[in-house]
Every structure is written in C-alpha cells, then in structure tokens.
Amino acid sequence: MAAKAGSDQPWLADAAAELAGQYGAAVDVVSADGLDLEALSTVPRTEVAEPAQRSAEALAERIRAAGVQAQAHTLSGPVVRSVLLFAEDRDADLIVCGGSTRGPVARRLLGDNSIQLIRRARRPVLVISPPGKESA
After folding, report:
1. Looking at domain 10-128, does it have CATH number 3.10.20.310?
2. pTM
C-alpha cells in the first residue's frame, strides 16, 4: 500500500486491511520522501523523510489494529519510481494507493501519482478514493 507522506489516510488503511483480511495477506505500507537528489534540495533528506515515516507507521499501526499483519517502510526518491521498485522487489500481488484529491487543473499542473502508478506498473493497481470524493 502506498501512503502519501505527511498525510492522514485512515480510509486507505481501512480498505487495505479489509482487502488483506479477506485474502489472508500481509500489507507492506510504503511512503516515499519524494526527494530525487539530496544534493539539489534545500533541506536534508532526513527532514523530508520524517513525514513519510510517520505516515507509513501510522497506517501500518491502524492495519495491525484491524488484525492484519503490516509493516511500514520509508523509501527514498521520487514517489512513483520508489513504489514501483519496491513492488517489484517484494513481488507484490497488488499496489493499493489513494486517489487524488486535487482538482483537474492542479492534477494537470502538478501530476497525479495514482495515475502514474496505473500507467507504469507491471502489477495491478487499486486506487481507493477518499470518502465523499470523486475517483482519481
């Protein structure tokens, strides 16, 4: 499951826990710092990685509270590339991510990680929309 760094997504953790529980699967919760090159950044990677680590840990804890085995992982690098490499390395059966809450103009200008995951993944990608929001 791909978690957005610095974001609270309990609905995503609940959906992943329910799905994993139905199939007796474990969940790897990953969150990437989104930093491509630390040398070109204005802040050290440790500061950028901290929100990613907090998000992954919080969601993994929520999944474990639902009785599903979950482990948190913090990845370094651009989000989409990091998630795809992790999924390949772990031979993941499914990538679960949250849908975008950005409007159409912002998605066009800033990009949309869930769309990029769908386009680039060699594995199935399940996009879960936030409650009360349109799908990605």
Report:
1. no
2. 0.83
